[in-house]
Amino acid sequence: MMWGKVAAGAVLGLPLSAFTLGAVIYAWPGPWQHSMVVGMLPFFPLWMAVIAASPLFRSTARAWLWLALASVAALAALWLIKFTGFGV
Questions:
Q1: Vertex 80, ends 8 and 69: CA angle to 5°?
Q2: Which of left, alpha, beta for 30 (phi over 0: left; psi -120 to 50: alpha)?
Q3: Which one of 13, 38, 55, 82 is most buried, by most CB atoms within 10 A?
Q4: pLDDT of res. 87
Q5: First CA to last CA distance, the chain
Q6: Which residue has the higher pLDDT, 30 or 1?
């Protein structure tokens, strides 16, 4: 039962971390290329935090559902920031 939650954190935590940090990088003032390296430094710790927190969900299905929804929301935020020019 716990392994399903950890798998959800590992599989869905990867895009969640990438999309979240991508949105932060694009929203940061200045060209995104200047903040790319510094912005990606917290990627691995963020991903590990998602994996470590995933067993806290009540069920495996909830872990997959909520992490999938969070990943989609982070992707939508990244897309919105990137294509509206919010951070430029």
A1: 20
A2: left
A3: 13
A4: 58
A5: 45
A6: 30
Query: What is the per-residue pLDDT across 27-70, written as a single tens digit (0 to 9) for each?
Result: 888 887 888 888 889 999 999 999 999 999 999 999 999 999 99
Please state, in angstroms and rounded to a whole number, the distance separating the CA atoms of residues 67 and 84.
Answer: 25
Q: What 8-state DSSP symbol labels residue 9? A: H
Structure tokens at 5: 């939650």
Distance CA 83, CA 54 (A): 31
Cα–Cα distance, 65 to 34 (Å, whole number): 34
Which of 70, 27, 36 has the alpha carbon at shortest distance from 50?
Answer: 70
- Our measurement of the distance from residue 15's CA atom to the centroid of its chain's CA atoms, rounded to an integer in Å, reads 5
Amino acid at 81: I
